[in-house]
Amino acid sequence: MIFKKFNIENKKTRDLIPQAITVLALLSVIIYFATNAQINMGNRGISFGFGFLNQEASFDITFSMIEYDGSHSYGRAFLVGLLNTILVSAIGIFFATIMGVIVGISRLSDNYLIAKVAEWYVEIFRNIPLILQIFFWYFAALRALPLPENGISFYDISFLTIKGWYVPKFIWTNFNVFLLSVIAALIAIYFINFYATKQREQFGKQIPSTTISIATLILIPLITFLFLGVSLTFEYPVLKQLSPTVFTYAGGVSIIPELIALALALSMYTATFIAENVRAGILGVSKGQKEAAASIGLNKNQILKLVVMPQALRIIIPPTTNQYLNLTKNSSLAAAIAYPDIVLVFAGTALMQTGRAIEIISITMLTYLTLSISISIFMNWYNKKMAIKEK
Amino acid sequence: MNLIAKPSKENFKTYVPIGLFLISLSILDVFVNAFFNFNLMAFLPSQLSYFLPLILGFIGFYLIRIEFSGVHSLDILNKNINSNNFNALLTLLTIFIIIKSIPPMLDWFILEANFIGNSKDDCTGDGACWVFIKVWFNRFMYGLYPDAEQWRINTAFLILFAVVGVSFFVSEKFKKYFVLFLVFVFPFLGIKLISGGSFGLEYVESAAWGGLSLTFIISAFAILFCFPIGVILALGRRSSLPAIKYISIGFIELWRGVPLITVLFMSAVMFPMFLPDGTFIDKLIRVLIAITLFEAAYMAEVVRGGLQALPKGQYEAAKSLGMGYWRMNALIILPQALKLVIPGIANTLLALVKDTPLIFVVGLMELAGMIGLAKTNPKWLGMAMEGYVFAGLVFWIICYAMSRYSQNLEKKLSTER
Predict the structure, then answer these.
(1) What CATH number is attached to the domain comprising A78?
(2) What is the mean pLDDT of residues B21-30?
(3) What is the pLDDT at residue B45?
(4) Which of B80, B357, B358 sits opposite A112 (nearest CB)?
(5) Which residues pair with B210 in a beta bridge?
(6) pLDDT per residue over B263-308, tens digit each?
(7) Where does the pLDDT of residue A96 fall: very low under 50, low under 70, confident under 90, or very high at 90 and above?
(8) Residues near A201 by Cβ (< 8 Å), separated by ≥ 6?
(9) What is the CA angle B348-B351-B355, rounded to 5?
(10) Which listed site, A69, A98, A383, B407, has its alpha carbon 20 to 30 Å from A322?
């Protein structure tokens, strides 16, 4: 009886065989690896587990956004690395977007020189490996900067030296009130836009929502400065002599050269790809759309803002999301110039000290997976918002 | 009051010469300043003399902006770089920046650079020390591969170029044998020649390989293997069988979600834990597997794009001819799908080549790694700029050539519809 069901002529059975073979093969590979790992770890006297995350890390990290020293745990070190990764990715994404949009639009400029310069910028920076660009900025360009005692000064409040870029430190009083006011302003803007859209769609009234939004964003926080006791002072970096020949800057915030080199290289490299996306997006809007917009009497700015850009964004966003993801993943090249990101701190130093290869590599990879997936979920949401709404 | 009339055809004869004179004067000023360090307008207050070229050029461009002047070259000029005030300003700034940046570049690259000598002491000029590249050139190309055996790498690459070259000239009939040889025989022949160990060739361990030749070896092998794996993964992701589909999706998304550097770390420190105690897989092979699987996931997504773009009718037509799954894909679907995604494939392969320097994390040194080694040599400290500019140039030429080739291929294979 059972053999009758297992007829090769039956489509269901025929489909089952390759699937079963694949699953079995995959399972056997996993089991083979797992048993080997177990035996190997048994031989070396280590057991699988994440308890080490609470142990004292006892190594220092050169750059940290949260309080950290050697007495903190490996878990804390992981957090420091993760925050540094997020920091450099955020800076990179910010500047790459701005530069990418500028270069992308420049490539379509009717000014021949500008278009050519933009084209060569893309051709040059896209075709050189990112790691070489990072090395170039870090080992060659930034090393050519002057020593602290004759650092390049920007109006005496900020100094660029070989040891990094010293900028004024913000000292807030009642920062919480300020933060709350910004959040309140953002909520207010949301409702203003909501109201403006409704008015426009129902009654055809044009409300200058952009101007009102900007005014709200400036006014509400300004009120907190004037009436609610929020104030901001700056602590400027000051040159200090450590010994007859060694100088440094005290006070202010020091942006380490590793961060500068990495952010520069990441944004300049990724900007070339974003520029190509922007160009493709604008070219992808058909000429008829612009002509139609012009024929109903919109001016040049209105055409760009109301007709071309909304359609171009639909083409631009999906590939640009991929570039943001790539930039985040590429920030792991930090390890090459010792910027303390998650790979260097956790998969490098912490792994060397604990020897827990499987746990640490899995955590690192899972972290990147989570970062990637969260960026893509956010961008998918945004993409859906921008997509054609059929009414 | 209208002292200056708007530039038009009537005042063409006065405005154009004045305009051109002002533009030439402004460019000349910047040029002389940049090349000979001499300020033509030094008699003016410093702030004014700084901005004067810009102002003069701007007025000049305004004066020559005559619509439908009737002079062809002037119309072309106006249309392309001088269509309005903003464009005129951008044009001037671009020209000034280019002129300003030429002399220091020229000085550093050629005029003040040092070409002759054997050591760092011979570099007395202010410019680049190309002696560094000259002395280390052998290492940059072959890594730590023994000097006496380097002919083997040369032979391998020469055979490759010869076979590729000859295959361009033979008839279509024999071409496929050349391709088969290149894909299935040559890689293993070449690797045997380079690694040695038999036929009287001295064994050279892979740790000694390096430099640009290693870049080529890794790129070639990874390209060779990642392509079929990528195609299979793409087919798997489009499969109607749930187990195969979800395993493919999981595999692709896992690799695409993590950076290559962690994959290489994994191949270096974590992978040995998964093997029976005492087994040893060569570092180079582990790295190759890691890069291949990583890039195969990207390749799979590119190929999937091509598969999705094909109209359903192609599948149905193939099936109605009685073709099975594999025959349908091999003869009807893939040839069309792959042609559609040539740019994507080329980009993936380019990314692969650009990713090869990352193998430094496991201690293998291709071109960029060798430069890192050379610049930390006590006798050659401070040569980072020369080294990375050289490496950048080499990689740029390779990648630019590849992207140009793919553009040509795309044009050649595009079938008009």
Answers:
(1) 1.10.3720.10
(2) 86
(3) 73
(4) B80
(5) B365
(6) 898 888 888 888 887 778 888 888 999 999 999 999 998 998 888 8
(7) very high
(8) none
(9) 140
(10) B407
DSSP secondary structure of B79-118:
HHH-SSHHHHHHHHHHHHHHHHHHHHHHIIIIIT-B-S-S
Determine, yes or no, domain membership for A354: yes
Q: Tell me if B269 and A357 make a contact (CB, 8 A cut-off).
A: yes
Which of B216, B133, B155 has its CA nearest to residue B402? B216
Of B79, B277, B357, the CB nearest to A131: B357
- Cα-flanking dihedrals φ and ψ of residue B282, to 5°? -55, 140
Instruction: Specify the DSSP element, H or E, that contains B30.
Output: helix B12-36
Report the residue from B254, B258, B274 with minimal CB separation from A36. Answer: B274
Q: For the residues A359-377, what does the mean pLDDT come to?
A: 86
Task: Report pLDDT for B382.
Answer: 79
Give the gap in angstroms from C-alpha B137 to the nearest C-alpha of chain A.
18
- Chain A: residue nearest B399 by CA? A127
Subunit contact A343:B259, Cβ cutoff 8 A: yes
Nearest residue on chain B to A355, alpha-carbon basis: B269
How far is Cα A39 from Cα A47, in angstroms, rounded to an integer? 10
Q: Which domain holds residue A9?
A: 2-45
Q: Is A295 left (phi over 0), alpha (psi -120 to 50) or beta?
A: alpha
Q: Which long-range contacts (CB under 8 A, 24 or more apart) does B391-397 make?
A: B391/A132, B391/B140, B391/B367, B392/A128, B392/A132, B392/A133, B392/A136, B394/B212, B394/B367, B395/A127, B395/A128, B395/A129, B395/A132, B395/B353, B395/B354, B395/B367, B396/A124, B396/A127, B396/A128
Whether the predicted pLDDT of A70 surpasses 90: no
- Which CATH superfamily does the domain covering B130-145+204-413 fall into? MetI-like (1.10.3720.10)
A388 confidence band (pLDDT: 50, 70, 90): low
Whether A268 maps to a domain, the answer reads yes
Are A124 and B276 in contact (CB < 8 Å)?
no
Q: Quick one: A111 and A245 in the same domain?
A: yes
For residues A138 and A252, membership in a common domain is answered with: yes
Gap between the Cα atoms of A226 and A282, Å rounded: 44
CA distance A262 to A242: 29
- Least confident segment among A67-81, A112-126, B66-80: B66-80
Q: Report the alpha-carbon angle A248-A251-A254, nearest 5.
A: 70
ipTM score: 0.86
| Average pLDDT over chain B, rounded to an integer | 84
